Amino acid sequence: MTLTATAPATGPRAITSRTGAVAVTAALVVLVAALALVDITQGTSAVGAAEIWKAVTGSADAGDASVVIASRLPRAAAGLLVGAALGVAGAVLQAVSRNVLAAPDTLAVNAGSYLALGVLTVTGTTLPLLASSGVAFAGALAAAAVVLSLSGPGTGTVRLVLAGSALSLGLSSITEALLLLYPERTNGLYQWSQGSISQNGFAGVLQMAPVIAAGLAGLLLVARRVDALALGDEAARGLGVSVRSTRTTVVVCASLLSAAAVTLAGPIGFVGLCAPTLVRPLARRMRSFVRIRATLSVAGLAGAALVLGSDVLIRAAVSAQSAVAVPTGVVTSVLGAVFLIAMALRVRDTTSATGPERLRIPSTAVFVLTVGLLVAVVVGTVVGAVLLGDTKLLLGDVANWAQGRAGRSVSFVLDTRVPRVLAALLAGAALALSGTLVQAVTRNPLAEPGILGVTGGAALGAVLLVTKVPLASSWNIAAAALAGAAITAVVVFGLAARGGFGQNRLILVGVGVSAATTALISLFIVLTDPFNATKALTWLSGSTYGRTLHDALPVAAALVLGTVVAVLRRTELDLIALDDDTPRLLGLRPSSVRLGLLVVSVLLSATAVAAVGTIGFVGLVAPHAARALVGRRHARVVPVAVLLGALLVCTADLLGRTVIAPAQLGAGLVTAVIGTPYFLYLLIRARR
């Protein structure tokens, strides 16, 4: 099902007078002004209304004037500009796509800008702020073009969110790789990437204000065309409106607004989604807000109120010293995640998710040959992973090490390398099996632990322990990850179960929960000391660095349990993957079977995350590839998916350790770069 933009206000409840619209607009202006005033008074030094007035009039002492003019006023002005730009960008993107979930975040615009600026930072290129905004604009526009090409106007709400989320993950993974490879050049880039309106003077605000004004002017010039698009493409063409050029102009202007906001304050999440959502009910009651020009004004004011209100909230909730380090974007991201979940609950799925569209039953010989080839490839990859790295070894070295006769240098290399390879193998197999169980239970071929927020919950629990208790054992980290995964799983699957695990609700709730966990993870990393922050970032990249055999034990135990359950319950898996009626006719209780399998899936995901950190897309790619190779019967899918998952993560870990040696990349970053194109391909195939 698709969520579309709000229709014009009709019926007796619609208010035709402009008085109500003027009153609402005036109230928003007063609210924004009040929030800006409060924001100016907050900080590490006491500055009240009297000091502000003296600073503005030039009668304050040098200290107070410096605080107000150089820091407080620029911060409030940046919040006003950034919020207005993002609110307007979200509103107009939703209008032209006729999709209420279109926003700079869901279109990967922020991620594209972030990557472009990250590349600029790494290369050491020094550009004026205005030129940097141009680089961010190019990245934003490219990302938006990719996502919009995968989800046509007025269709594909879930497809748009999935395409944007997948592309954001891929682009962010590349940026995170740059952060880890060039820590000196990118110092402070991570905290900036969470979105902060703190400024040093008015220079940035004054340079970005004309850019934002240009974007707004462009949107106002095509406002009437956008109003015509609300009637439908055919009706707009009948009125002489060029649909393609209008959409292109709007996307370009919205990307320009988003790029300017990112350049000024970093990616502040979900303002472009929340602001139009807050003002959309006005269009149902006041006809003045049906036209896009009026909508843009109130959406801009709502966006400014959200950003300034979030900044005020975080500075009121924590100490003044801590508030300096907490990015405003963390608060807006959490609020946006709540909005996304609330909107997901409004989606009505008329049918549950369906399984794969083709029923293929390859012969037993094909299955045996496939398993044999995969085993051979996995063994070869494991051998290569053990022998290759910053220090290359021979098979004889491994044989001597196994017999306890190796030299000190060889023993040191293999003592550290073998546990890494084992952890990658086990984690990949566990994630693949978890994805197989989730897809069968939900009958949703796009479901996987990462997209559904379970992996994010596990990462949140583990990061919380890593940052608070740096010397925690592997079993304690696994327990924390399991607790986080269990909580998020209860939220996601509990809310989605109300509609029979329909595609729309399940995926949207999962994406919302995942966004919330990502924001909270960023908060803990920003607030912890630099050593723990670097450790957490390395762990989140899916790195196997420093892993020991003890770290692999929890995931090994979970994998054994999960494999036994999947093999013993293979018939139930086949029946549950079909529908709810068939299992009941055969005497099964789908709800209890589904709950048990979901518990096993959560256990597998949590222990895998505890072992190697966050690794995405394995739970999606491996089951899909397995079904394509051996059909839909889980007696065959399970072993093939497990082998494919182990192969994928082990290969990713090997590439991360060898391609740019002696530097290293986490396996999670490599799988994200590989998995993103495959996921987008699945969306394209589903659309066709």
Quick recap of the structure?
This protein has 688 residues and is an all-alpha fold. Helix content is 74%, strand content 0%.
Description:
- With 688 residues, the chain is mainly alpha-helical.
- The chain is built from 29 helices and no strands.
- The chain has 2 domains: 18-317, ABC transporter involved in vitamin B12 uptake, BtuC (Orthogonal Bundle), CATH 1.10.3470; 367-687, ABC transporter involved in vitamin B12 uptake, BtuC, CATH 1.10.3470.
- Helix 16 packs parallel to helix 28 (634-658), helix 19 packs parallel to helix 21 (503-527) and helix 23 (549-568) packs antiparallel against helix 26.
- The chain starts with 17 loop residues before the first helix and ends with a helix.
- Mean pLDDT is 80; it is low at 6-15 and 350-358.
The average pLDDT is 80
Return Rg in Å.
Answer: 26 Å
Sequence of secondary-structure elements: HHHHHHHHHHHHHHHHHHHHHHHHHHHHH
The helix/strand class is mainly alpha
For the record, what CATH class of the largest domain applies? Answer: Mainly Alpha
CATH fold name of the largest domain: ABC transporter involved in vitamin B12 uptake, BtuC
Secondary structure tally, helices: 29
Strand content: under 5%
Shape descriptor: globular
Domain module tally: 2
CATH architecture tag of the largest domain: Orthogonal Bundle
From the N-terminal CA to the C-terminal CA, the straight-line distance is 16 Å
